[in-house]
Write a structure and sequence with these properties.
Blueprint lengths: L4 H23 L6 H8 L3 H7 L3 H24 L5 H16 L4 H8 L6 H16 L8 H20 L4 H16 L1
């Protein structure tokens, strides 16, 4: 059965995103040329420029797709909990799991910090912190704590990616979270 135009369009876009992701992870953004991307995706240069105006737009789309996958994992796992504390800790574990996907830490934390869809990830963390701090009278600190904890999670993901013991960072996160409500 022949594929319709929408299916072909989606398949071409996915092939470009997948090929670009692999090359950006392997070579880095600066060292990846568009001819390499189209060759790896097995599409024409015209197909690339039909979907993306330039390499930067393609890179942004790759980063956004990766960021959305991380945010989705966090949201799914943290929403299935019974307390704000458990939601934050489940979200932290989900973040570390999501960042363990090969190449993701390099893409999101090393190559594209200005382009990462932090709003999705941070909004989930902000919501969890608001619920956690609601009874402590510290709601005025939710925004700065969101920024600081987000940075802590990113740094932990980088260290875990470098081979450090994940359980140590998870224990440190528990200590941080529990310290917020003591």
């Amino acid at each position: 059965m022949a594929r319709n135009n929408r299916e072909r369009t989606d398949a071409t876009r996915t092939a470009l995103l997948d090929a670009a992701r692999a090359l950006f992870v392997d070579r880095g953004y600066a060292e990846t040329a568009t001819p390499n991307i189209v060759a790896a995706a097995n599409v024409t240069r015209g197909a690339l420029y039909h979907h993306f105006p330039d390499k930067k737009a393609l890179f942004t789309a790759v980063v956004e797709r990766e960021g959305a996958a991380v945010a989705s994992e966090i949201e799914e796992r943290s929403s299935a909990t019974s307390s704000a504390r458990d939601a934050i800790l489940a979200g932290a574990a989900a973040y570390f799991d999501a960042m363990a996907v090969p190449g993701r830490t390099r893409l999101l934390l090393l190559q594209a910090p200005a382009l990462v869809n932090e709003d999705q990830v941070e909004s989930t963390l902000r919501s969890g912190l608001s619920a956690l701090l609601a009874t402590s009278g510290s709601l005025g600190l939710v925004d700065p704590l969101t920024v600081l904890l987000s940075a802590a999670f990113d740094r932990a993901a980088l260290e875990i990616d470098r081979g450090r013991k994940r359980s140590d960072y998870e224990e440190a996160i528990v200590t941080l979270i529990d310290g917020l409500v003591d």
